[in-house]
Design goal:
Elements: H1 2-24, H2 32-41, E1 49-50, E2 68-69, H3 71-83, H4 87-97, H5 120-129, E3 148-152, E4 159-168, E5 174-178, E6 185-187, E7 194-199, H6 203-210
Pfam families: DUF1287
Organism: Pelagimonas phthalicica
Signal peptide: 1-24
């Protein structure tokens, strides 16, 4: 009897620990767009510092410590976590093959795999070349969970990028997961700045990126 009670107690503790762990780290959903949005969301509370410094990275899959990053790192990390797509490798290989198609605003004469994928204008070109670009719109209903949106910030005209969340504001505007200077957050800012790019990655677009 005592042995039975002991086994029952151990089983209960193990099951309880299992469910606690499962609740603490829920698996990403099956739908690819939602996977991307939730992979971005998991960075909230983890990436706490906006750090725009030039950093030498490993290649491929190079990254800073996750507590640091910029807006592009939200997208880069989410794609790796959700889809296994490495934008560092995709950007580097596509720029190397089609360098003239990418912006020359930094005065580079060749690729730099440490930083190319962390620049919004380069990602805008890459995602457009992948066939992911959509018409620009000021209609909240045009934006779906997992869409990627790029901006030029009001006042500074600096480039910015984020991922459409599965959450909405009270008026129905989709929230955006991004890092604009205070770490990764999910906020109601979709129409606070000029939208310059709207991208949606279906199966064909994801395969294109993965094949670079």
């Amino acid at each position: 009897m005592r042995l039975f009670l002991l086994v029952s107690l151990i089983s209960a503790l193990c099951i309880g620990a299992y469910f606690h762990q499962a609740q603490a780290t829920p698996p990403l959903p099956d739908q690819p767009p939602l996977r991307l949005a939730q992979a971005a969301q998991t960075q909230v509370g983890v990436t706490l510092i906006y750090d725009p410094r030039y950093v030498g990275l490993e290649y491929p899959m190079g990254d800073l410590p996750r507590m640091r990053g910029v807006c592009t790192d939200v997208v880069i990390r989410a794609m790796r976590d959700a889809w296994g797509i490495d934008l560092q490798e995709a950007t580097h290989k596509d720029m190397k093959a089609h360098f003239a198609k990418y912006p020359t605003i930094w005065g580079l004469k060749s690729t730099d795999r440490n930083i190319d994928h962390r620049r919004v204008p380069n990602l805008e070109v890459l995602l457009t070349r992948a066939g992911a670009d959509l018409p620009l719109s000021s209609d909240p209903s045009a934006f779906e969970t997992g869409d990627i949106v790029s901006f030029r910030l009001s006042g500074s005209n600096l480039p910015h990028i984020g991922i459409i969340s599965d959450k909405h504001s009270p008026d129905g505007t989709p929230l955006v997961t991004h890092n604009i200077g205070w770490g990764t957050r999910t906020e109601n800012m979709l129409f606070d700045h000029k939208i310059t790019g709207h991208f949606r990655l279906g199966e064909a677009q994801r395969q294109w990126l993965a094949s670079r």
